[in-house]
Amino acid sequence: ERPLVPVGTTLVKAHRLFFRLAKDLAPFFYEVPRAFGAYDQLLRKLGVCDSPKPEDYAASLVELKQEMGDAKLNANELNSAIEVINLVGENSNSHSPMRRSVFAPNSKGVLVSTDKLLQNDCPWMVQGGRVDLSLVHLSHPKLSKDLCEQLHI
Q1: Which pTM does this prediction carry?
Q2: Which pLDDT band, with edges at 50, 70 and 90, does 123 fall under?
Q3: Is 50 helix (H, G, I), strand (E, B) or coil?
Q4: What distance in Å separates the CA atoms of residue 109 and residue 81, rounded to the nearest whole number?
Q5: Domain chopping of the chain, boundaries
Q6: What does the DSSP assignment read for 95-125?
């Protein structure tokens, strides 16, 4: 089992804790509190890194999918997941092998493998009832067209 580090009122797995974060990504990632500055070496031995890599972003979405299953994300989880999936798109190249294991929210707010997601680029077909939404997963409307293209959705 992985070590836990207290951050505020939350116990955080060391692999989800970083010395520097560009933005607030809770509940996926947390920044080491300044009060822990003297324990730099100990935290590194526990697995804390300087900043997240694209693989860390993708792995956090896989973990969330394992925890949530086919349940709908709440509003905070959904917004954080969209932030993280944007970072995956920005920080990975088009030939990245991790792209196969990335999850993103569908139109219902459920995490789905990007291999199974479709972009709703013909909304008139959906609105006209020409697409059976029980058979396809459309990407969440908050995922931009550019991001969908980066993720091959």
Answers
A1: 0.79
A2: confident
A3: coil
A4: 10
A5: 4-46, 54-150
A6: T-GGGGG-EEEBTTS-EEEGGGEE----HHH
